[in-house]
Design a protein that fits this description.
11 helices, 378 residues, 5-stranded mixed β-sheet, Immunoglobulin-like, 4-stranded mixed β-sheet, alpha+beta, Glutaredoxin
Length: 378
């Protein structure tokens, strides 16, 4: 089951090219849709930028220049309301690159169709092949979400849903992998590769698919960045010794990871502003309280930022997180998060007493079950 995560929008895949990307987005909306304004969001200089354009007679347009193609999103406001009150519950991502992108929708961002540039045309073909599986996946999730909160939080119930979703996810990943294998010369394959990998890819598969790409694609600036990313991820894969680090507690006391050797340690990347992290915290508390006297501890690494220090401390207290917490308060630029290639939270790494990574992203019952097996003799 795809875990709910807080991701870094700035880490959405782009494609570096040695040229200027002059893009145009031309959009049309049905005249009776009451759409008043369009908002185009995309990363610029490591920040998420949002441009706006009035919708007149069902038409709108954006123009801009970028150093490389990037993944972008559209959102609409209706009847003159503000963006924050937009009824577009989700956004569909597409690509800004050199050329004219045409966008059309009957009434909302969730229904847009995108055409007109190579990346978007290739993306449309891939989405079409994935649609039957996506529909199956969404139908199962939509059946699960309306249930009472108690049922949704029940670990057994969640495990049943995960078991039903697993074969669908496997089929989706196979389609993506097959696309990469059959399009070794396509720069869009770099996008598909990163989508396939997600925030915590199988490094072996990820590297093998990358090596199957043509030399020209691999030697491109984006290809070289992915190569570097693969090497970083090898260093935090299961079986590797976790890179050592030192960061400060809320009281500015430095804590070194290696000082916790001799215990099983869960490095937990989270943030006070991350909803999925806060939802997972009760499971961590339960695991910690169950095994803290049997050679287990947690080291929380927060992706809060400097002006969020108070929120970080309050979250620790409110959620009863009684283990050690550290951060450099640099949000997604947290030095440890970057060294561990963290692109979404919550994310965790379980280390054995020697500091070797033995598992990643264990949550809920899976975390408690794994700890139970590892610590059963203690």
């Amino acid at each position: 089951m795809k875990k709910i995560l807080c991701g870094a929008l700035l880490l959405l895949p782009g494609l570096a090219l040695a040229q200027t990307e002059n893009f145009v987005v031309k959009g049309t909306v049905a005249n009776n849709a009451a759409v008043s304004k369009a908002y185009l969001g995309y990363p610029v200089d490591k920040k998420w930028s949002v441009d706006s354009a009035l919708v007149k007679n069902g038409r709108f347009e954006f123009r801009g220049t970028l150093p490389e193609p990037v993944r972008a999103s559209l959102t609409f406001s209706h009847n003159g309301t503000a963006l924050r009150k937009s009824r577009d519950a989700s956004r569909k991502f597409f690509y800004l690159e050199k050329g004219v992108v045409t966008v059309a929708t009957p009434d909302s961002a969730t229904k847009i169709t995108v055409r007109g540039t190579p990346l978007n045309d290739e993306n449309a073909k891939l989405e079409a092949s994935l649609k039957p599986l996506d529909d199956q996946y969404n139908a199962l999730v939509n059946k699960y979400n309306p249930q009472p909160e108690a049922a949704r939080k029940d670990s057994a119930h969640a495990a049943q849903l995960e078991a039903k979703l697993a074969p669908i996810e496997a089929a989706q990943q196979k389609i993506r992998a097959d696309y990469i294998k059959t399009h070794p010369d396509a720069r869009f394959s770099l996008v598909v590769l990163q989508d396939l990998g997600g925030s915590t890819p199988d490094v072996g598969l990820y590297a093998a698919l990358y090596q199957g790409l043509s030399a020209a694609v691999r030697s491109s600036p984006r290809g070289q960045r992915i190569s570097e990313q693969i090497e970083r991820r090898r260093k935090v894969a299961v079986g590797a010794i976790a890179p050592d680090f030192t960061q400060n507690t809320p009281d500015n006391v430095p804590v070194k990871l290696s000082s916790l050797r001799g215990k099983y340690v869960l490095i937990d990347f989270w943030a006070s502003w991350c909803g999925p992290c806060r939802q997972e915290n009760p499971n961590l508390v339960k695991a910690f309280n169950t095994y803290k006297d049997r050679g287990f501890t947690v080291l929380g690494v927060s992706l809060d930022q400097e002006n969020g220090r108070e929120a970080w401390v309050k979250a620790i207290q409110k959620d009863n997180l009684t283990w050690t917490h550290v951060s450099d308060l640099k949000s997604w630029n947290n030095a440890v998060a970057q060294e561990y290639s963290v692109q979404a939270v919550p994310q965790n790494f379980l280390l054995d007493p020697s500091g070797k990574i033995v598992a990643v992203n264990l949550r809920g019952e899976e975390l408690r079950s794994t700890l139970g097996k590892l610590l059963k003799a203690k």
